[in-house]
Fold:
Amino acid sequence: MTSHHGRLYTLALALVVFFLAWAVIAAHPWASASPDPRLRALAIRQAQLQREAKLVRKVVAARWARYRVQLKARRAQIARVNAAAAAARAAAAAAPVAPAAAAGPVQVVNLPPAHVVTRTS
Structure:
């Protein structure tokens, strides 16, 4: 073969045949189609996790429902306390103010001046 193009085509064809044979051998067409035990274990684990997730969703829904009931009761309690405080403020504002003299006698005490030492020795 003296043609340069013929050599290049032959080399290209040899490379294509080589990689095609490599791909066919790597695919293992003669191997049995038995399922991989890792895939089976993975499917079992997935089913187990789905069951656990369903149980967790059920528990969370129950807790959330209990929380909503308790929150409603707490808000009602806060509203009652606020209403009682508002009523007490209104009653205190409406009540007449008693004069200070009616509160009781006040006793005034006068003390002698404190003894202050000013000398230095």
In short: The radius of gyration is 48 Å. The helical segments are 4-26, 37-94. The mean pLDDT is 87.
